[in-house]
Every structure is written in structure tokens, then in C-alpha cells.
């Protein structure tokens, strides 16, 4: 006998949207896609600029001089952010395990292309105004961390170590999609203070990576 039958009352029903209702499984991936839209749009504008007859300026001259690294970076990062969001849809992933494995292989390749091309650009591209040594160090550290996380995650799944595979892939995705978060860390300063100078820009860009990694570690460690 249930407690409700002893009391002579009907079992309580959980109403949709009530406090017992779970968060829909699509909300996480949808949020990640929305966050990824920011760098995807910026990348698409950059590709259009390179493909068209845009004027060469001090801000974009490095891209016109050597376009391949930035083109690879934009394509790799865009696919990584948009397709990778669906790996966080638990029901979709479980219903289509074959898709999960196939997409995972593609995402490792796209992520490595994005990370390694970003490292190349940091080392070899001339720095635009406002990008100093501190920002270059941050880009090298987090770009290397992303590439290493992807390699460790791939190695873990080859050993059938699903727990470590999940953890490393979440960390890699957090680093790889930080461009959307960085837009939000920099925007308040630009609105309230004005144009970003070298040190504040470096710290606010780093804040985007740190915020994403903090959320990633919370997801990894939660029950």
C-alpha cells in the first residue's frame, strides 16, 4: 500500500513546469548553439571579407597576406561549436550512438584544426593593435590545453575509459567555444569604460576561458 492510499487521497501528480519537472534535454544544446552563433557570424563575415573585394587595412592585412590559417580556423571552430552542441543532448546521443561516434571523430579533427591554427596565428601573424604579450601567452596556454584535452579524450575512449573521455571532451569544448563568452566579458567594459586597452583586453579574454572551464568542471563533477 502507498501512503496516499492509506490516507484515502489520490496520488499527487507532477504538473508540467512544476518544481519536480526536469529541465528539458534540449535546453543545454540550444544554449550552446546560441553561444556559438556569435563567433560563427563573425567568422562568416571574415570569410566574406576575404572572398570579396574588401579594402586591406592594418586590422585585416595579416589575413589577406596569409589567408589559409584563418580560413581553417574559422571553418574548424564553427563546425566544432555547432555540431559539438548536439553531443550534450543525452537522449539524442543515446538514441543514435552511431552518430555520436561518427560526429565525435569529426569533432576531434575540427577541434584540432581550430586549436593548432589558432596557435599558428598567435605565433606567426603580426599582432594587431591592442594585442600584447599577455594575451599571446593566454592564447598559447589555452590553445595548447584544448589540443591536449582532445588528444587525451580520444586516447581515453580508445581504452574504453568513458569517464575520462567525457571529462576531457567537455573541457576541450569549453575552451573551443569561449569566443562567445568572451564577447560578453568584453562588452560591459566597452559600454561603461570605452575602448579596450592591452591589459584589460587580455584579462577579459582570459576570463571567458576561465568561466567556460569553471562551468565545465561543475558539469564534470556534479552527481
TrEMBL record:
The chain crosses the membrane at residues 21-44, 64-86, 106-125, 137-157, 169-190, 202-220. Keywords: Membrane, Transmembrane, Transmembrane helix. The keyword ATP-binding does not apply. Pfam families: DUF2306. InterPro entries: DUF2306_membrane. Residues 1-22 are annotated as: Disordered. The keyword DNA damage does not apply. Signal peptide: none annotated. This is DUF2306 domain-containing protein. It comes from Microtetraspora glauca.
Amino acid at each position: 500500500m502507498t501512503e496516499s492510499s492509506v490516507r484515502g487521497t489520490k496520488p499527487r501528480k507532477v504538473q508540467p513546469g512544476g518544481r519536480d519537472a526536469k529541465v528539458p534535454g534540449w535546453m543545454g544544446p540550444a544554449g550552446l548553439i546560441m553561444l556559438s552563433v556569435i563567433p560563427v557570424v563573425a567568422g562568416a563575415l571574415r570569410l566574406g571579407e576575404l572572398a570579396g573585394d574588401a579594402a586591406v587595412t592594418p586590422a585585416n592585412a595579416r589575413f589577406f597576406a596569409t589567408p589559409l590559417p584563418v580560413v581553417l580556423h574559422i571553418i574548424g571552430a564553427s563546425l566544432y561549436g555547432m555540431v559539438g552542441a548536439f553531443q550534450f543532448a543525452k537522449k539524442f546521443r543515446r538514441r543514435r550512438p552511431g552518430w555520436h561516434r561518427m560526429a565525435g571523430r569529426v569533432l576531434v579533427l575540427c577541434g584540432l584544426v581550430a586549436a593548432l591554427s589558432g596557435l599558428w596565428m598567435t605565433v606567426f601573424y603580426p599582432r594587431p593593435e591592442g594585442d600584447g604579450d599577455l594575451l599571446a601567452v593566454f592564447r598559447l596556454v589555452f590553445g595548447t590545453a584544448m589540443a591536449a584535452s582532445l588528444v587525451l579524450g580520444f586516447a581515453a575512449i580508445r581504452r574504453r575509459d568513458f569517464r575520462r573521455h567525457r571529462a576531457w571532451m567537455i573541457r576541450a569544448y569549453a575552451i573551443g567555444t569561449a569566443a562567445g563568452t568572451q564577447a560578453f566579458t568584453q562588452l560591459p567594459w566597452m559600454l561603461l569604460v570605452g575602448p579596450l586597452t592591452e591589459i584589460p583586453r587580455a584579462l577579459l579574454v582570459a576570463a571567458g576561458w576561465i568561466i567556460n572551464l569553471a562551468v565545465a568542471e561543475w558539469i564534470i563533477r556534479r552527481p
